Structures are given as structure tokens and as C-alpha cells.
Amino acid sequence: MGKLGDMANKAKEMAKSHPDQADQGVERAEKLVDERTGDKYDAQTDKAADAARRYYGGGQQQDQQDQ
């Protein structure tokens, strides 16, 4: 696998090992995109953030707090 693939795999493992920190990064990225696009793609960024969180098992504490 190439360097990019290796880096992606390392990032995935780190996110699984530190889901709280990964959640913060996903949330920051989502907010940044929403701010820069004037919330034009809010539904899409929500879906992408949720998919990312499901991938590494994050967002569970956030979901519990929302209930």
C-alpha cells in the first residue's frame, strides 16, 4: 500500500483508540465547512460527520447527551 493508504490506516486506528478526540476533530471540520459555505450544505455535512463517527465508534456519548 502507498504512503497515503498507510497514513489513512494510521488515522483510522488513532480515531478508534481516541474517539473523544476524533469527535472533536469531526465536529470542528463540520462547523468549518458549514461556516464557509453559509450552511448551504448543512444536511450533507451532518450526514458525513455521522458516517465518520459510526466508522470509528465515536459520537456515542454525544448521542446519549442529546436524549
Automatic annotation (TrEMBL):
Q: Which InterPro entries match?
A: Antitoxin_Rv0909/MT0933 (IPR028037)
Ranges of biased composition (kind: Basic and acidic residues): 9-53
- List every stretch annotated Disordered: 1-67
Organism domain of life: Bacteria
Pfam families, alphabetized:
MT0933_antitox
What is the official name of this protein in its record? Antitoxin
Native species of this protein?
A: Streptomyces similanensis
